[in-house]
Design a protein that fits this description.
By secondary structure, this protein is mainly alpha-helical. The chain has helices at 7-22, 31-49, 54-68, 76-83, 90-108, 110-122, 126-140, 147-165, 180-197, 204-214, 221-246, 257-268, 273-295, 299-312, 318-322, 325-346, 349-361, 366-379, 387-404, 409-422, 434-438, 445-474. Helix 5 packs antiparallel against helix 16 (325-346). The N and C termini lie far apart (51 Å).
C-alpha cells in the first residue's frame, strides 16, 4: 500500500520553500507576494514529488497562507477568510458538481452502453475499434470532467476486455502487439483530445478559464468549444490512423467485436428508466451550456440544474453525492491552488514577472513570441506528473508574458488551455488516465515515450497550424 506521506520528499519540499522564503524579494516585488510564491512553489514541488496527496499538500498550503498572514498582514481573521476564499468560487463548483453528474453515467450503466453501441457499429477492424472507443469517449466528455473516471473507469475496462477476447492478454508480453498495445495508446490519446475539446472535458480547463478571467479575458463553454472544434475533430480522425502506422496492431480484422458488443448489450437488457433520465439530463446540460449566454444562465448554474434534476428524479441520491470522493478531493486541492495563483496575480507578482520577461525578449514580434511560448509550455510538461499542477504553476505567468509582448489575449488563453489536455501524450505519467492505461502493461515505456513524442508533433501541426487558420476565421486573432 502506498504511503500517504513520503517524509524524505516532504523534507525536500519544506527546505525548498524555506529557502525561497528567506531570499530577499527582488525590487518591485512585495514581501507578501514573495512569501506567497514560496508557499505556492513548494506546494507544486510537493505535488510533483508526490510528497503527500494533493489534498494534504493543499490543506498544508491553506494553513500556511493563513498562519503567515501574507494575504492580510496583522489581521488573522481576514487572513483565514482570504485563504479559504476560493471555496466559494463558481469555477471550483462547476467541476465538483460535474463529478457528481458523471457518477450518474457510471451508476446507470449509460456510459458503458454508449461504448458498446459504438463498438457494435465500428468494431469490424482494429482501426474501427479504436475509433469506436474514441467516439464513445467523445460523447461522454462534455459531462464527465474527470478524464480519469471517463478513460479509466468507463473506456479502459471495455478496451481491455476487447483486447483479451482477441487473445491479447497483459500476462503474455508476446501478445501485447496483437491488439492491446494499439488500443491502449489510441484510447488514451482520444481521451486527451476530448479533454481539450470541451471546457468541462478535464478538471484543469476551468482553472485556465479562471486564470484568464483574472487577466481580463472571458472564456465561455461555447467559445472554448468553437475554437477547439476543428483541430480536435481533425485529431480524432488523424491520431488513431497515425498510431495505426507507427505502432500497428498485428491483428487487423476484429470481425467478432460487433457481435461481442451486441452480446454485452443484450446482457444489459433494454434501456431502463434511469438511463433515459440520465440521457435527458445530459441533453439539458448540453443545450444550456451551448445556449447559456443567450439566456444569461451561467455554466455552474447549468451544472446545478443538472444535479438537482438527477437528485429529484432519484437517478442519484444524496449518498451518491457524499460518497463521490473524487469530487470533494478536487474541490479542496483546486480551491487551494486557485487561491494562491489568483493572489499571486492580485499581489502583483505575475504582472512583475511578465514585465521582467518582456524586457528580456525586447522587441520580439508577437507572431514569433506566440509559438515559442506555446512550445515551451507544451514540452515543459515532461517535468509534471499532473496537468493541474502544470496549469497552476505556469498558465498565468505564460499568459501574462504573451499579452505583454502583444499576443492576442484570447488566442493565447485558449491555446494554452488546449495544451492542458494534449500535452499529456508525452509521458506515461502526463495526465490522470495515463497510469491506468500504462498500468495495463500493454505498452513498453520506450514505445510510450517514442509514440508520445511523435504524436506531440502531430498535435502541434493540427492545433497550431490548421487551428491557427480556423481561429482566424473565428476572428480570435
Amino acid at each position: 500500500m502506498m504511503k500517504e506521506i513520503k517524509y524524505p520528499q516532504l523534507l525536500i519540499t519544506v527546505i525548498f520553500g524555506v529557502v525561497i522564503w528567506l531570499i530577499p524579494p527582488p525590487a518591485g516585488v512585495t514581501p507578501e507576494a514573495w512569501h506567497l510564491l514560496a508557499i505556492f512553489l513548494s506546494t507544486i514541488l510537493g505535488i510533483i514529488l508526490k510528497a503527500a496527496s494533493m489534498g494534504t499538500m493543499s490543506m498544508m498550503a491553506i494553513t500556511l497562507v493563513a498562519l503567515s498572514g501574507v494575504l492580510a498582514p496583522g489581521n488573522p481573521g481576514k487572513s483565514i477568510t482570504l485563504a479559504l476564499s476560493s471555496f466559494g468560487d463558481k469555477v471550483i463548483w462547476l467541476i465538483g458538481i460535474s463529478f457528481f453528474i458523471a457518477r450518474g453515467f457510471i451508476k446507470t450503466g449509460l456510459g458503458k452502453r454508449i461504448a458498446y453501441i459504438f463498438i457494435r457499429i465500428f468494431g469490424k477492424s482494429s482501426l474501427g475499434l479504436a475509433y469506436g472507443l474514441g467516439l464513445a469517449d467523445l460523447v461522454l466528455a462534455p459531462a464527465v470532467p474527470s478524464n480519469t473516471a471517463r478513460g479509466g473507469g468507463i473506456i479502459y475496462p471495455i478496451m481491455k476486455s476487447m483486447a483479451m477476447n482477441f487473445g491479447s492478454v497483459p500476462e503474455d508480453p508476446a501478445t501485447h502487439r496483437k491488439l492491446g498495445g494499439y488500443l491502449t495508446l489510441s484510447s488514451y490519446n482520444m481521451n486527451l483530445i476530448t479533454s481539450s475539446l470541451f471546457l468541462t472535458g478535464t478538471a484543469s480547463n476551468p482553472m485556465c478559464q479562471k486564470f484568464a478571467r483574472n487577466l481580463g479575458i472571458e472564456i465561455t463553454w461555447m467559445s472554448w468549444f468553437a475554437a477547439a472544434l476543428v483541430p480536435a475533430a481533425l485529431s480524432i480522425v488523424v491520431v488513431p490512423y497515425v498510431l495505426y502506422k507507427i505502432y500497428p496492431p498485428e491483428l487487423k480484422s476484429t470481425g467478432d467485436a460487433p457481435a461481442m458488443a451486441a452480446e454485452k448489450l443484450k446482457e444489459m437488457g433494454p434501456v431502463h428508466k434511469n438511463e433515459w433520465l440520465m440521457l435527458l439530463a445530459f441533453v439539458i446540460l448540453l443545450v444550456l451550456w451551448i445556449t447559456g449566454d443567450l439566456f444569461g444562465i451561467d455554466a455552474t448554474t447549468t451544472a446545478l440544474i443538472g444535479l438537482v434534476f438527477l437528485l429529484l428524479s432519484q437517478v442519484l441520491d444524496w449518498e451518491d453525492v457524499k460518497s463521490e470522493k473524487g469530487a470533494w478531493d478536487t474541490i479542496v486541492w483546486f480551491s487551494a491552488l486557485v487561491m494562491m495563483a489568483s493572489f499571486l496575480n492580485s499581489l502583483g507578482f505575475i504582472p512583475w514577472f511578465s514585465e521582467l520577461i518582456k524586457k528580456q525578449v525586447g522587441g520580439m514580434q508577437w507572431m514569433v513570441a506566440f509559438p515559442i511560448i506555446v512550445l515551451v509550455y507544451f514540452y515543459s510538461h515532461y517535468i509534471f506528473a499532473s496537468a493541474t499542477a502544470h496549469v497552476a504553476a505556469m498558465y498565468s505567468a505564460f499568459l501574462a508574458v504573451g499579452i505583454s509582448v502583444g499576443v492576442p489575449g484570447t488566442l493565447l488563453a485558449l491555446v494554452l488551455g488546449f495544451c492542458g489536455g494534449i500535452f499529456g501524450t508525452l509521458t506515461h505519467y502526463g495526465h490522470g488516465p495515463a497510469p491506468v492505461f500504462f498500468g495495463s502493461t500493454y505498452v513498453e515505456l520506450k514505445d510510450w515515450w517514442k509514440c508520445g513524442f511523435l504524436l506531440s508533433i502531430v498535435y502541434i501541426i493540427l492545433w497550431m497550424g490548421v487551428g491557427a487558420g480556423w481561429w482566424k476565421v473565428l476572428g480570435i486573432w
